[in-house]
Amino acid sequence: MEQWTFLTNHAHVLLCIARDPDIRLKDIAAHVGITERATQRILADLRREGYVTPVRVGRRNHYEVERDLALRHPLENDCSLGALLDALEYPLHRAKV
């Protein structure tokens, strides 16, 4: 049976970074289920469009997510990245209470 998900790998990478801004590239790849090279390409896309900014901290990157930017697709561009991330995080916040 073919497997599919509602979210793209770009969304999965962003969700990993939003959950842990200090996450390593190889850990993102493992969580999303893609190669490190694919993760690098996705991060390059997200950086180029301004959704993610890496900040060097010692030998590692810390990622800042620009939550105020609109989503890219015309059906979604009235929604901010922050609103999407908040919606996806809702079950995690609820479980912690």
List keywords for this structure.
97 residues; two-stranded antiparallel ribbon; alpha+beta; disordered C terminus
CATH architectural group: Orthogonal Bundle
- How many strand units? 2
> What's the CATH C level?
Mainly Alpha
Helix content: 40-55%
Mean pLDDT: 90
Major sheet attributes: 2 strands, antiparallel
Task: Characterize the structure shown.
With 97 residues, the chain is of the alpha+beta class. The chain has a single domain, classed as Winged helix-like DNA-binding domain superfamily/Winged helix DNA-binding domain (Arc Repressor Mutant, subunit A, Orthogonal Bundle). The chain is 49% helix and 12% strand. The protein is built from four helices and two strands. Strands 1-2 form a two-stranded antiparallel ribbon. Strand 1 and strand 2 form a beta hairpin. The longest helix is centred in the C-terminal third of the chain and has 16 residues, at 81-96. The termini are far apart. The relative contact order is 0.14. Mean pLDDT is 90; it is low at 93-97.
Give the arrangement of secondary structure elements.
Elements: H1 9-19, H2 25-32, H3 36-48, E1 52-57, E2 60-65, H4 81-96
In short:
Residues 93-97 have low confidence and may be disordered. The protein has a two-stranded antiparallel sheet with strand order 1-2.
